Amino acid sequence: MTLLELVQSTLAAINSDEVNSITDSTEAMDVAYIVKDCYYDLITSRDDWPFMFTESQLTGLGDVTAPNKMRIPTTIAGVTDIKYNKVAVTYLSPREFKDMLDNRVEQAGVISSTGLMLDRDPTYWTTYDDDYIYFDGYNSAVDTTLQQSKSWVYGTKNVTWSMTDGYVPVLPDKMFPALLAEIKAEAFTSIKQQTNQRQERKAKRGRDRWQSQARRAKVARTTYDQGVNYGR
Questions:
Q1: Second label for 120, Cα 20 to 30 Å away, from 88, 136, 178, 232?
Q2: Tell me: the pLDDT tens digits for 1-40?
């Protein structure tokens, strides 16, 4: 459903005037903001919604002074897995990562003075600032820095909101009725200053279904319904 359709359905439920755009009335805009609030309440209620995961590539920096450094793309909110050159790279906490580098002994062409491996692709990664990714090495015989084209990152995506008629919230089709029930229940309370038990019950049933039916590929739940290694 588009934002306009959600607003129109909600206005009809609370016996308000019909609109052809969310900007047609103050009440329509009030409902539009309720839609936004309810949607973000849903999205932030857990950090592992299956439909919020996506894959991308890390941003290459081309900085020869920091050849092991890459950036998380703006489309990714939280990182779960990273591969480089099609091989999985293991996450370490900043302290573990630093200790590992400090314990390496410098060797010409093999290990740098800062502990970076120079003759192979990275094995470990960390982040200090939730923005940049630091790897434990790179193959200096092949590249001067780590390459974006060789990277792969999997994690939760950032959601952007557009307060426009045609905007469609990022949500599986089957979850829209539950979201709509939540919106209507909130609209009755916020705008009409009254409760609607029927909508409250529908919203509660919807919240319960959100938790148990979020994934379309049910056979994958056991494998992938796990906590992420790192979130932005």
A1: 232
A2: 999 999 999 999 999 999 999 999 999 999 999 999 999 9
d(CA 166, CA 163): 9
Q: Look up tokens 């900007």; give the residue.
A: 23
**What is the reported pTM?**
0.76
CA torsion angle 9 13 14 18 (round to 10)? 50
| Rounded-to-integer distance, Cα 3 and Cα 6, Å | 5
Distance CA 208, CA 153 (A): 31
Q: Beta partners for 81?
A: 154
Give 124's strand partners: 90
Give the list of residues 6+ apart from residue 99 with CB closer than 8 angstroms, or none: none
CB-based burial label for 7 (10 Å; 0-12, 13-18, 19+)? buried
